[in-house]
């Protein structure tokens, strides 16, 4: 048993996140720096480990895993001397940690950091767009709300969510400073992260190099509803959402898959239901879906799904409790769905329709969608489903997204035969038509109607 090997670039926030986790649990890993600019991640040896060719990638004695937000819980579950960073038997706290991890992936990284740095690399931009600055400040507002509940992002003890978000915030604060008077809890929290004994070694050095690299490349400067009834002790969980949303539909599919009776309440985002005081008390990030499990509030579909399985399923086949490796791969696919299929593909199709009256999909977005199909075709070389030969929550999450993407950017069956065969298996599920197809048809119709208006 050799020690685990981590491949990455020290300048990367998501790599530094994993390095901090390893230090936090006193795990001796071998770190190997690779050069993305030289194409190291596209070499055959690397692609065999990680067909998505991202960083970081973990080689744990021949067990290959990528996506930092999947690697972190895997390392804690397998190697930590205690489970304080990701409590094994506290389902509620694990669910909240997962929500914050997806917040880091989908919001802090995809929506904020990438929208700062990618225009520098691909468009030679030297300024940060007002829209991105607004997104960053909104993320600060959400974190300030999270921190009303404790010293850290999930209560009063450090978790892997703090280390992930800490790496991201260390970069964001350099480009879009947060006003200490407006975000006092956020600043106090970040000071606690910076005071960790391993922070300077595992994060600060790489972050300084990252900021310098981006500023050198760009000369960037810093830029100064619904009333909730009184409930009896244990009522069935309530899910708030819009049926047209694929992330809502993915949770409804999970509930059906585990035969869980939930109460579903449709809300209207267009009418501002999610901004009403009653809803904001449940979910200060004001997103959908939101779960009310007898006063335990949880949002982010990729956190709700494992929570429901762990708490209510009759068996753990959809998210195996004691198979650390499989859980890690499921988590990786969930983050792929969040960061790639949803944020990078679906939102880049529909948001220009809403905000710019666009009637076509950009070539860049079509390219991103096809790259996502290529990655999934690779994933499916290992089995009938996204993680082996049995259905998991990753298939239901990605299935809801693919049902939408196939309508806008069809996938060539000759080029992606495994992807098409997998999706046919998803469509054959006894609850698929009821829980996903109806809402997806309504969603596609709505977007196409808006596209048609954009042409006028």
TrEMBL record:
Residues 90-220, 323-444 form the GST C-terminal domain. Pfam families: GST_C, GST_N_3. Residues 2-83, 235-316 form the GST N-terminal domain. GO terms for molecular function: glutathione transferase activity. Gene3D superfamilies: 1.20.1050.10, Glutaredoxin. CDD domains: GST_C_Delta_Epsilon, GST_N_Delta_Epsilon. InterPro entries: Glutathione-S-Trfase_C-like, Glutathione-S-Trfase_C_sf, Glutathione_S-Trfase, Glutathione_S-Trfase_N, GST_C, Thioredoxin-like_sf. GO terms for biological process: glutathione metabolic process. Homodimer. This is Uncharacterized protein.
């Amino acid at each position: 048993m050799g020690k685990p090997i981590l491949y990455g670039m020290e300048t990367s926030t998501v790599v530094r996140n994993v390095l901090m986790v390893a230090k936090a649990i006193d795990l001796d890993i071998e770190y190997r720096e690779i050069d993305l600019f030289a194409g190291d991640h596209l070499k055959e040896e690397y692609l065999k480990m990680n067909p998505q060719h991202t960083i970081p990638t973990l080689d744990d004695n021949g067990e290959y895993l990528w996506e930092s937000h999947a690697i972190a819980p895997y390392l804690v579950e397998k190697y930590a001397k205690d489970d304080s960073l990701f409590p094994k038997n506290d389902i509620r706290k694990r669910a909240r940690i997962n929500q914050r991890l997806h917040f880091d992936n989908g919001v802090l990284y995809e929506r904020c950091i990438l929208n700062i740095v990618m225009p520098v690399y691909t468009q030679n931009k030297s300024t940060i767009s007002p829209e991105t600055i607004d997104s960053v400040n909104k993320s600060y507002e959400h974190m300030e709300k999270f921190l009303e509940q404790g010293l850290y992002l999930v209560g009063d003890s450090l978790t892997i969510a703090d280390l992930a978000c800490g790496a991201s915030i260390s970069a964001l604060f350099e480009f879009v400073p947060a006003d200490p008077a407006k975000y006092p809890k956020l600043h106090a929290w970040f000071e606690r992260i910076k005071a960790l004994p391993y922070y300077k070694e595992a994060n600060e050095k790489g972050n300084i190099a990252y900021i310098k690299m981006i500023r050198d490349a760009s000369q960037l400067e810093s830029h100064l509803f619904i009333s909730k009834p009184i409930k009896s002790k244990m009522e069935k969980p309530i899910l708030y959402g819009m049926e047209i949303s694929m992330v809502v539909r993915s949770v409804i599919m999970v509930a059906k898959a585990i035969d869980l009776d939930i109460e579903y309440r449709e809300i209207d985002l267009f009418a501002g239901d999610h901004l009403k005081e009653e809803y904001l008390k449940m979910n200060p990030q004001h997103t959908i879906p939101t779960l009310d499990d007898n006063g335990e509030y949880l949002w982010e579909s990729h956190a709700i799904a494992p929570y429901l399985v762990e708490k209510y399923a009759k068996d753990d086949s959809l998210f195996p409790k004691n198979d650390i490796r499989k859980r890690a791969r499921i988590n990786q696919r969930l983050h792929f769905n969040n960061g790639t299929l949803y944020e990078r593909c679906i939102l880049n199709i529909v948001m220009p329709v809403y905000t710019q009256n666009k009637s076509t999909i950009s070539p860049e977005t079509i390219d991103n969608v096809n790259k996502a199909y290529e990655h999934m075709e690779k994933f499916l070389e290992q089995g009938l489903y996204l993680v082996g030969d049995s259905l998991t929550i990753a298939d239901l999450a990605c299935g809801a997204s693919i049902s939408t993407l196939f309508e806008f950017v069809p996938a060539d069956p000759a080029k992606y035969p495994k992807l098409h065969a997998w999706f046919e298996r998803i469509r054959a599920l006894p609850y698929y038509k009821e829980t996903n197809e109806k809402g997806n048809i309504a969603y596609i119709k709505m977007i196409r109607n808006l596209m048609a208006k954009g042409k006028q």
